[in-house]
Amino acid sequence: MALPARRCLRARGTARAVALAVVAMLALLGGMDFPALAQGRATTWSVRLVPDGDDTNVRSDAGALSLTSTPTVPASTRSGRPEGMLVTAVQPLAELSSQVATELVADQPAGSAVGVDIRGIRGDGSWTEWLTTGSKTPAGLGTAVTAVQTRIVLHSGEGGASPLVRSIRLTAQPGVQLLAARPHNAPSYRVFATREGLVGGTTANGHVIAPRDHFVALPSARGLGPRDSGDYTVKICASSGRCEWAPVWDVGPWNTTDDYWNTSDGRQAWQDLPQGQPEAQAAHDDGYNDGQDQFGRHVVNSAGIDLADGTFWDGLGLRNNSWVTVTYLWTGDGTPAIVTLPILPVYSGPGAQYPAVGLAAQRAKLLVECTVIGSAGPADRWLRIGPKQFISAAHVTIAGKQASGTRCATP
Question: What global pTM score does this model have?
Answer without folding.
Answer: 0.87
